[in-house]
Fold these 3 entries.
Entry 1:
Amino acid sequence: MITPGKWTEEQKIEVLRSSIGNVLINLKIIANNQLAYQLGLITEEEKQHLLKAAEVALNMMKRGKEKGVFK
C-alpha cells in the first residue's frame, strides 16, 4: 500500500487527467444551465468565460493525449 504523500508518477498523472475531465464537465454543466441563468447566478458574459475555460480544459486533454501522457 502506498502511504499518503508517496504517489507514483502514474497516480499523479491519473489525478491530473481526472481533474481536467471533471472541470471540463462541470464548466459545461454550469455554463449551459438555464436555471442558473434565469436565477441571475450567471451573466451572459460569465457564461462565455466559462465556455472559454472549458475549451482550455479540452485543449489540455487533447494535448495530453497527443503527447501520450493520457490514455
Note: Residues 11-64 form one domain.
Entry 2:
Amino acid sequence: MKGNVRSSRGLFLSCLMSQIVWFVSAVILLLLFCAISNSMSDPESVSMPLSLCALYLSAIIGGVGAVKLSGDGILSGLVSGFISAGIILLLSALPLPSSGLSTVNSIILLLLVIPASVIGSFIGKKRSKKIKHYSKRKRP
C-alpha cells in the first residue's frame, strides 16, 4: 500500500525539489524552441513568443511535479509558482541583454508564472475514482 503512505518531506521541501523538474523542463523546451526558431527565415520575430511558451509550459510541468512530490494539491502548485517566480526574478538581475519589454509588462509576464504552476497542480492532482451506481433494470 505504497500510495497511502505520505512522504516525510514537507510542502516547502517538495516544492523546492520540483524546481529541478521545472528547470530541466525549461532548458529542454528552450533548446527545442530555439532550434525551431533558428530554422525559420526570421528567427527574431518568433523568439519572444516561443520563449514565453517555454516559460509557461515549464511552469505547468513544475506544478505537476510539485503536486506529485508533495500530494498537497493546489497549495503545492501555488508555492511552487512563487518559488519559480522568485528564481526568475533573481535571474533577471543578472547583467544580460534586455528583452525590450517595459517594466510593467515584464512584471505581469513574471506573475503569470504563478497561475501557470497552479494550473499544473490541477492537471497533476490525482483524482478519486467515482463509484458508479447502476440501478437494476426492471424486466417486463
Note: The two ends are 45 Å apart (CA to CA).
Entry 3:
Amino acid sequence: MVYKYSNSIKKIIKSAFWVILISCAFVHIYTLNLYPLPWFDETYMASIAKEFYETGKFTKRIAYHAHEQKEEFIYGPFYFLISSLVFKVFGFGMTQFRSIAFISGILVQISAIVFLKKFVKQKSTILLMSIFFMLDPFYFRCMHEGRMDLTASFLMLSGTILFLSAIPKKHYFYFLISGFLCSFGLLTTPRAGFLLLPLMLFLGFFTIRDLKKNWHYPIIWIAPIILLYSSWIFYAFGDFGNFINFYQEKIGYTRLPGRPFYIPKQQFPLIITTIIIVAISIIKFGKSYFNSLTLISISSILLFYIIVYDQGPYASFIIPFYYLLIFYSGKRIFTKKYEHQSEIHSQALL
C-alpha cells in the first residue's frame, strides 16, 4: 500500500502553494531593484553586456585599472547576447538586467518540478518541493543578482531532462535539442561544464550496452556542443592552443589547484537534511535507490565541490539537485510499497 496524503492535508498544501507563489511573486517584483545593493560582479557583468549591446564587443568600462581594457572572453557570448536583446527591447537599467536572473531562476524551479514529476506522481509532494524551493533564502538572493549562473543552470537542467527522455525512447530530436541546450549553457559560462560529466557517463554506458545500435546517439548529442563551442574558441582565441593557454592561467577559478571549500551558511540546513535523508534511503533501499535522478543529483553535487571554487553564488548550480534528492527520497521513505512504474525509464538507463 502506498502512503497517501489525506484530503485535508492536500487542501492545506495546495492553498499554501498558491499563497506562497503569489506572495513570493509580489516580493520578488517589488524588491528586484532594491535588494541586494549592486556589487562588483553585477556592475562588471552589466558593463560587458552594455558594451556588447552598443558595440558588439565584450569589453567593459569599469575596473579599468584592475583589469586590462581588453575583451572579456572568460565566460561566453550567450548571456551577453540575451542581455543585449533585453536592453534593446526594454532599455538599460538595474531591473532590466536583473530580470534575466529572475526569469532564469523561475525556469530552473519549473525544470526541477518537471524532473521530479518523472519519478514522483503525487501532486502534493511536488507542490511541497515547489514551496520549499520558492522560500529558499539563498536562491531568492541569487534570483536578484545580475549574474549568468541561473541562466546556465536552466539551460543545463533542461538539457538534462531532454537527455533522460531521449535515452529510453532513442529519440534523435531529443538528443539533438539536449545537445544544443547544453552547449548554450556552456557558452553562458564554462563553469557549468561540470554538469556535463554525469551525462557523458550515462551516455557511455548506454552506448556500450548495444554499440551496433547506439553508436550514433553520442555523436548527435555531442555534435552541437563541439561545433558551437569550437566556433566560440576560434572567434575569441584564434585556435585551441590559445584557448588552453588562456584557461591554464585562469585555473584559479576552479578548485583544482587545491583551493579551500566555501559553503554559505544559509545552505547548512539544506545540506545536512539532504545527507541524512539520502543516507537513510541508501540504508533502507540499497541499490534500488539509485536511478537517473539520484545518480545525476549526487554526482553533480560531488563534482561541484571537487571542481568548482565557490566564492558564494556558484552553489546556485546545485541547489535544485538538493531539493530533488530530499523530496524524491522522502517520497520513497514514506512509501510502504515502491511505485515501480515511476522508474521504468530509469531502469532502461541502468
Note: DSSP finds 16 helices and no strands in the chain.
